[in-house]
């Protein structure tokens, strides 16, 4: 991506937080009345400094991980498996809350302009999440100007709002307007200030997005990514600081019927076209920020599944080249959170900071360890200091949020993160035990030889011939005409994912049938395909092998295409597909293993003369 496109596409999450971050801070300070609101500028200054510090620290991450360095990757590489899983759990909560909070804040922007829609806010929010779910399942991705427009529209709207508002304030000597009379429900204590600080810090969410997407930039990727990150942090600080300053000068206070940004726009522009533009741009960027999570959450699940900490079904790519299972999981979790908290932004905010800053802290701590291990790199001391500063500030916010917001809902995030970590470690333990049970033992297992070598047809698919209604009818008539065993011509196909005991059992069963046999392997890359061919040669190379490269890790669709091609080339053959099947001891373990056979049956059911057979392999206790 070009920098001018990457900036809005990758910054939507961070910049959209200007719509709810300042308001979240003010919603706490207003509990202390006018005395509490006096702390808004000092707290905003501290948050702006944190934005700068964390942004600079992520510049070091981009330099160290030019191929993408998210919190999970950095923490796993430098701190170990468990901290990496904890960081991933924090990121998952972050993305779930991004959807819930962004949708809730976007709906509030709409209902501020159209109060009649307020009673239906929860229903509208759920409908929006469902629309995003359907769109992402159909392969709608972030791309080009269409996704850049809402972010640039929001930047222009808030810049204009702040500029015009400050110009009006300058005409009055920057004398703050008096705030309305406020009831004091809490004393202005250190606890109140810390709660406001952690709520306002949610304006920092999304800063790490650019470090995750370094390969998406044009060359030189890491340099362009660092430049874009600098732009993003600069714009974020200006928008955040300008909004808080304008709130202070205009004497605006949060109330339930209208957002702070809406009040500022109404006071500055009046209820006209510019007010409508600000509200529309705010709603648009918040929806775009929610959609960003639908790209990032499935990617984290994919990385966890690849390392064995999540079910392998999250490796699966749908027909539209999207991680459909991860997208569905995110939508269901976001709907549950959104409905559970009645779509109220201020109720959702306490859950937000915990996951965000836990991931920030572990990522920056991992970078400190990285620089200590790579002292031979240029400027490593300076980079270490920047990352240590960012990690320390993030840790302070994380601990503060966990303590001050615990009873307000942060306990939910802490509990869910703990459960996710325990679940991930339990899943990894199960996969490790499966690997041990399925491992081949040298000099004991040998690839089975085909019982009748060279007999029958040896088929390789080529280009699929064009089909017409007449030829298809002729095939069906021929397919239904077999009545005697000698009329049946066989070809046995054994899809083999890896050389293990389950695969060997399926190959042995297939070879024992004495029919022409073809082993089929799907590899995500050509490198892995060559590696499998070398394994195959090492274990005997007794059976014909066909390797298909499936770059998106899809399984069923390439299998179906391959088998359909064989069927159309040789409609006289009965194709028997023999699949190894892992049989587990406990019901909850079933979801950890791909259910390829049922999906393959459903996909191939319309075609005649295709048989699906499964060979069970029972795991020991």
Question: What's the short story on this structure?
Answer:
The chain is α/β, with parallel strands linked by helices and 621 residues long.
Rg for CA atoms? 29 Å
The total beta strand count reads 5
Largest sheet: 5 strands, parallel
* Strand order of the biggest β-sheet: 3-2-1-4-5
Region (Disordered): 449-484
Membrane topology: Multi-pass membrane protein
Main location: membrane
Subcellular location: Membrane
Report on this structure.
The chain has 621 residues and is of the alpha/beta class. The protein has 22 helices and 5 strands. Strands 3-2-1-4-5 form a 5-stranded parallel beta sheet, sandwiched between helices. Helix 22 (596-604) links the parallel strand 4 and strand 5. The chain crosses the membrane at residues 40-58, 79-104, 116-135, 147-167, 187-207, 228-249, 269-289, 321-343, 349-372, 384-403, 409-427.
SSE map:
Blueprint (H helix, E strand, L loop, with lengths): L2 H14 L4 H9 L3 H5 L2 H25 L6 H9 L1 H33 L7 H17 L6 H28 L18 H11 L8 H4 L8 H30 L9 H10 L3 H34 L17 H17 L4 H29 L6 H25 L1 H33 L30 H11 L9 E7 L5 H12 L4 E7 L2 H13 L6 E5 L6 H14 L3 E11 L12 H9 L5 E9 L3
Parallel strand pairs: 1-2, 1-4, 2-3, 4-5
Helix pairs in contact: 1-8, 1-11, 1-13, 2-9, 4-9, 4-11, 4-15, 4-16, 5-6, 5-15, 6-7, 6-13, 6-14, 6-15, 6-17, 7-13, 7-14, 8-11, 8-12, 8-13, 9-16, 11-12, 12-13, 13-14, 15-16, 15-17, 16-17, 21-22
InterPro entries: AA/rel_permease1, APC_K+_Transporter
Protein name: APC family permease
Membrane topology: Multi-pass membrane protein
């Amino acid at each position: 991506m070009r920098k001018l496109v990457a900036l809005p596409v990758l910054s939507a999450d961070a910049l959209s937080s200007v719509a709810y971050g300042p308001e979240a801070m003010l919603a706490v300070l207003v509990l202390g009345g006018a005395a509490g609101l006096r702390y808004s500028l000092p707290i905003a200054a501290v948050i702006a400094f944190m934005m700068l510090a964390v942004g600079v620290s992520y510049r070091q991450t981009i330099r160290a991980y030019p191929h993408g360095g998210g919190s999970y990757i950095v923490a796993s590489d430098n701190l170990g498996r468990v901290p990496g899983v904890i960081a991933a759990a924090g990121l998952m909560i972050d993305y779930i809350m991004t959807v819930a909070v962004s949708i809730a804040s976007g709906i509030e922007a709409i209902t501020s302009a159209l109060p009649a829609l307020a009673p239906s806010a929860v229903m509208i929010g759920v409908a929006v999440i469902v629309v995003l779910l359907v769109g992402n399942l159909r392969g709608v991705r972030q791309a080009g100007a269409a996704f850049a427009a809402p972010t640039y529209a929001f930047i222009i709207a808030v810049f204009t709002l702040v500029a015009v508002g400050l110009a009006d304030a300058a005409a009055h000597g920057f004398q703050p307007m008096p705030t309305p009379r406020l009831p004091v429900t809490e004393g202005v204590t250190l606890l109140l200030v810390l709660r406001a600080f952690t709520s306002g810090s949610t304006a920092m969410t999304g800063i790490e997005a650019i470090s995750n997407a370094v390969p998406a930039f044009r060359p030189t990727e890491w340099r362009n990514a660092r430049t874009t990150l600098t732009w993003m942090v600069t714009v974020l600080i200006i928008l955040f600081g300008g909004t808080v300053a304008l709130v202070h000068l205009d004497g605006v206070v949060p109330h339930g019927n209208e957002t702070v940004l809406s009040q500022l726009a109404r006071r500055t522009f009046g209820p006209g076209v510019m007010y409508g533009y600000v509200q529309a741009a705010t709603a648009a960027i918040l929806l775009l920020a929610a959609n960003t999570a639908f790209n990032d959450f499935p990617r984290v699940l994919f990385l966890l599944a690849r390392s064995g900490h999540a079910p392998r079904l999250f490796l699966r790519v749908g027909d539209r080249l999207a991680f459909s299972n991860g997208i569905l999981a995110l939508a269901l979790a976001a709907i549950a959170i959104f409905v559970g908290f009645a779509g109220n932004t201020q109720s959702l905010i306490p859950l937000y900071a915990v996951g965000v800053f836990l991931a920030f802290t572990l990522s920056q701590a991992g970078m400190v360890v990285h620089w200590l291990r790579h002292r031979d790199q240029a400027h490593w001391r300076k980079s270490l200091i920047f990352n240590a500063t960012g990690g320390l500030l993030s840790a302070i916010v994380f601990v503060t949020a966990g303590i001050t917001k615990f009873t307000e809902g942060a306990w939910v995030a802490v509990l869910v993160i703990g459960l996710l970590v325990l679940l991930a470690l339990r899943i990894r333990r199960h996969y490790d035990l499966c690997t041990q049970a399925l491992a081949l033992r040298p000099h004991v297992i040998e690839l089975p030889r085909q019982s009748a070598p060279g007999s029958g047809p040896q088929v390789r698919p080529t280009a699929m011939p064009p089909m017409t209604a007449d030829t298809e009818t002729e095939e069906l008539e021929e397919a239904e005409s077999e009545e005697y065993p000698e009329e049946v011509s066989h070809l046995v196909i054994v899809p083999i994912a890896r050389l293990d005991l389950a695969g060997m059992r399926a190959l042995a069963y297939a070879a024992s049938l004495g029919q022409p046999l073809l082993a089929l392997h799907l590899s995500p890359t050509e490198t892995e395909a060559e590696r499998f061919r070398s394994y195959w040669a090492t274990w005997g190379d007794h059976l014909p092998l066909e390797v298909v490269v499936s770059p998106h890790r899809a399984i069923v669709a390439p299998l179906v295409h391959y088998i359909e091609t064989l069927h159309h080339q040789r409609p006289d053959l009965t194709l028997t597909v023999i699949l190894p099947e892992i049989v587990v001891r406990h019901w909850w373990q079933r979801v950890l293993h791909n259910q390829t056979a049922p999906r393959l049956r459903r996909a191939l059911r319309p075609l005649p003369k295709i048989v699906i057979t499964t060979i069970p392999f029972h795991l020991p206790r």
